[in-house]
Amino acid sequence: MKANKESTPSTSPPIDPKNRVVQYDHDGAVLLGVVTGVRKDKCKLINIRGRETELAQQRLHFLPGALAVDDDTLKTKVAGLEELNILIENRAKSIDVEELWIFVRDDLREYCVGDLCELYFGADGLVDHAALRIAFIADRVHFKRSKSGFEPRSETTVAELKQAEEAKAVRAEQQREVISFMEARLRDSSLEPPVSVCSLIGVLKEIAAESLHIEPAQLREAKEFLKNLAERLKLGDISAPEKCAYEVLRSTQLIGEHFNLSFVRHHINERFPDEINVLAREITLQPDEGAFRIDYTAAEVFTIDDSSTRDMDDALSLERIDDGFELGIHITDVSAAFDFGSELDNAARHRATSIYCADRVVNMLPDILSEDRLSLIAGETRPCLSVFITLSEDLQLLSSRVQATRVKVTTRYSYDQVDDLLEHGDKTFLRLYEVASIHEARRLARGAVKVHKREVVPHYKDSRVTLQEVNEESPARSLVAEMMVLANSVFAQYAIDNQIPVWFRGQEPPAAVSSSVASLPEGPAKDFQARTSLKKSSVSLEPRPHAGLGLPCYIQCTSPIRRYMDLCHQRQFVSFLRDGKAAMDSETFLKLANEVEGPLRAASLASRETKRYWLLTYLAQRDRELPIRATVVRTDLKSPLVELDEVFITVLVKLGKGYQPGMEAELRICSVDPRADYIRLQEM
């Protein structure tokens, strides 16, 4: 290789370009051609494909030489170009671009191809020149292409581009493996995906879920791959990448009919890693934890939950004492099972909350803890954090205290059983219900807003969706709900009195109710307006009133199995009871609360989307001949917003003129697509 010399790049056309051989870019390829004539600033030419064309001289790269042919016919010129092209391609394969880059990399300036050709070959010949230019264009790593030549890249840039090219090659190999696996899976659905293709299958799931975590560049690359994959699997032409990815995964049975794309979209992991499950199985709670935890196992303690509930984290007791009663609200002490910052704690923090779906429960903690060792199962002693409230003979609240305890649940009740006991005059539950009513009346007197909401819980079994209507205002559910509000208000005041950092929840007073809303009949429309008038609640380290609940201060601490921030609050209180100081200072607690905000928001969205999906699935299975009733709740949108009976969700629907909030309509279900969150209804 010759020594470097100064040069200036040039692509200027020769004085007489006729019969000169040229290269030019066309649809991503470099084509060879021969000039047959010149007209002003354009050249007429014949290309290697046998086509006559006319191009601006600026688009052409003139090679150092003319085409030597016996005659001037089109056929002869094309044959000459083809023969020349074979020589050029063979020469290009032998060129080591990196070798030339090493020679000139310290001189970061633009080179014309002729000078580079002389450096590499010792002369600027037609074949060598054309071959070198093709090799440089194909390389894309060592030299940066400019309008008139090439400039060597820096060593840092070359290293980065090499890494990118290697990664691209790896992705291409992964794509080939995925296509091969998918074709085999189409023939045999029992085949398990090899580890090498799992990451790309995960990307396909993200695309199917329209995940916001997919980078635009990754999506662009995946589109072409998906198109190729759909063709190989004979799925036809599916333009939308999310639909194509979904059909690919469904046709190969890598996802089922009701695969939860919301979990993929919001990065909800349904399974714990094996090592976390191993740690959970090793947890053994020691009931005797020192003098700070009092023994309450001799008391009559009971749980009240749905009959299907397995993660029972709260229980109640009511004991007769001198001149009154002692009410106990007992919360299972999850903080006793593992330490803050442990692997189990980090796993729970990443999930932030449990998610309840029609076909499964995704617990915040491994099932063996949520549903067994930390659940308040009858007959099992559990460490608890308890609120004790002293009541007068006429059930007025006199005082309260917070205490670490050991509790043994004696009886498990369902809501239906407690409703039945109340109806038959059971003294214990009647007293509890009266306590709950007294506390609720006080809250309402302080401005609390009691919002009615109709709700159903979907269940999926044997390929059918069924609905369980939940009456939140049944005596038993009202009793338990009020007890939890009472306990959380006591916890909040305890935190204030002892300067324990916690995440207080507050809410501004609701907007004033307009006369039009006040005049609405009782029912879905009025309830909807009441709900939408409520201000969004806020959280802070500083206590603030909660207008919606009618309380001066409030936190959430009664569901540590299901909510991570409840566990954090519990850890603060237990540490204070045991050591006289909270587990975390304000700065640490604030940082932790902010860290949990993202996973909590994702879980909330996934939960809401998943429930709506199952309710729409129920409507898709429902007899279309039967009308469904709806109540108009809003008319200030493009179409009226109605709340559907049976499922109690709101949808937009076109109705005739004259409908006002509170009016009812009978609708016919025309079409439903649960996965697209789409339903079309028509007035009957």
Q: Could you characterize what this model shows?
A:
This protein is an alpha+beta fold. 40% of the residues lie in helices and 21% in strands. It is built from 19 helices and 25 strands. The strands form 8 sheets. It has a 5-stranded antiparallel beta sheet with strand order 4-3-2-1-5. A 5-stranded mixed beta sheet has the order 8-15-14-11-10, with helices on one face. The longest helix has 36 residues, at 586-621. The N and C termini lie far apart (87 Å). Mean pLDDT is 92; it is low at 2-10.
The count of β-strands is: 25
Number of helices: 19
Describe the biggest sheet?
5 strands, antiparallel
Percentage of residues in DSSP E strands: 15-25%
Q: How far do the termini sit from each other?
A: 87 Å
> Radius of gyration in whole Å, from Cα?
37 Å
Helix content: 25-40%
Shape: elongated
> Strand order within the widest sheet?
4-3-2-1-5
List descriptors.
about 675 residues, 5-stranded antiparallel β-sheet, disordered N terminus, 5-stranded mixed β-sheet
How is this structure best summarized?
With 684 residues, this protein is of the alpha+beta class. Helices cover 40% and strands 21% of the residues.
Could you outline the blueprint of secondary structure elements for this entry?
Layout: E1 20-26, E2 29-39, E3 42-47, E4 52-56, E5 61-66, H1 74-93, H2 97-104, H3 113-121, H4 126-139, E6 143-145, E7 150-152, H5 155-187, H6 195-208, H7 216-232, H8 241-251, H9 261-265, H10 274-281, E8 293-295, E9 302-305, E10 314-321, E11 324-332, H11 343-351, E12 355-356, E13 361-362, H12 367-373, E14 381-392, E15 397-408, E16 411-414, H13 415-423, H14 427-445, E17 455-461, E18 464-470, H15 475-497, E19 504-506, H16 515-518, H17 524-533, E20 538-540, H18 564-579, H19 586-621, E21 628-634, E22 641-644, E23 650-652, E24 664-673, E25 678-683
Parallel strand pairs: 8-15, 9-16
Antiparallel strand pairs: 1-2, 1-5, 2-3, 3-4, 6-7, 10-11, 11-14, 12-13, 14-15, 17-18, 19-20, 21-22, 21-24, 22-23, 24-25
Helix pairs in contact: 1-4, 3-4, 5-6, 6-8, 7-8, 14-15
